[in-house]
Write a structure and sequence with these properties.
Layout lengths: L16 E11 L5 H12 L6 E4 L7 H6 L9 E4 L3 E5 L3 E7 L5 H18 L4 E11 L12 H5 L14 E2 H12 L16 E2 L4 H7 L7 H19 L7
Antiparallel strand pairs: 1-5, 1-6, 2-3, 3-4, 4-5, 7-8
């Protein structure tokens, strides 16, 4: 539960996860590991993975594989189940969970089971690394613009204004921030020089040099900024951040 009394969802209504992959890369004191491991793993969990497939990389000449570092960790065999599959190569073993994702609890159990089987074979002599990868697909109403990358990758040194071009009065800015924070505070106007009545960003230079202009509203940017600042403050104070 959050401080506002709302529960944090554990799953999204529409599952964006296409595949979760756990992988171990290793070296072995034995040769022909890719030929030995599939049978040993299959013998231990044949009910869950009833089918063994030969992958295209298995047909590559060993001389080519040894010369190309990119092929060192390419799997050559697959044990197929549902929704899990195990990929095996001379120096790599991976466990995949395709959609529908079974959840971390179940996936972690499968990972530990496979790790114990690999340990029992004594073929994984020296682990090089473990990795966990999630492949998601999230639909966007609007494709993100890559134009801002021109600024970081260009030879131009600036300075450039990249803020919102929306004109806003200080009173309006204060109201906007209080609304985002969910607070109602009084505003006290003190005597003194009036100064400017409003502010905005003049982005003509970056539009001329890089053809870019901001697309987010000032309020949207403030919401993102406020959320990030609040998260840092909560971390520093040892509290859980509230959306």
């Amino acid at each position: 539960m959050t401080e506002t009394g709302k529960s944090v969802p554990k799953r999204l209504r529409k599952e964006p996860l296409l595949e979760a992959i756990w992988e171990i890369r290793f070296t072995s004191d034995r040769e022909s590991v890719a030929e030995l491991l599939p049978g040993l793993i299959y013998k231990a969990i044949d009910i869950e993975f009833p089918k063994i497939e030969r992958l295209p990389a298995a047909d590559l000449p060993s001389a080519i594989v040894q010369q190309d570092a990119k092929l060192r960790y390419v799997p050559t065999k697959r044990l197929e189940g549902s929704p899990y599959s195990i990929q095996i190569g001379e120096h790599v073993v991976s466990l995949s969970c395709r959609r529908p994702y079974t959840g971390w609890g179940n996936f972690e159990t499968k990972i530990m089971e496979l790790a114990e089987i690999l340990k029992a074979t004594s073929l994984v002599t020296r682990p090089e690394r473990f990795s966990l990868k999630y492949i998601d697909i999230i639909s966007l109403t609007e494709s993100p613009s890559l134009k801002p990358l021109r600024l970081t990758r260009s030879a131009l040194t600036g300075p450039f204004n990249i803020g919102s071009e929306e004109m806003v009065a200080i009173n309006r800015l204060a109201d906007m921030i209080m609304g985002i924070a969910g607070k109602q505070l009084g505003k006290k106007h003190i005597p003194g020089p009036l100064g400017v009545r409003g502010r905005n960003s003049d982005n003509r230079l970056i539009a001329e040099k890089l053809g870019w202009k901001p697309t987010l509203s000032l309020e949207h940017g403030l919401r993102l900024t406020y959320a990030w600042i609040k998260e840092q403050v909560d971390k520093a104070q040892g509290r859980r951040s509230v959306p």
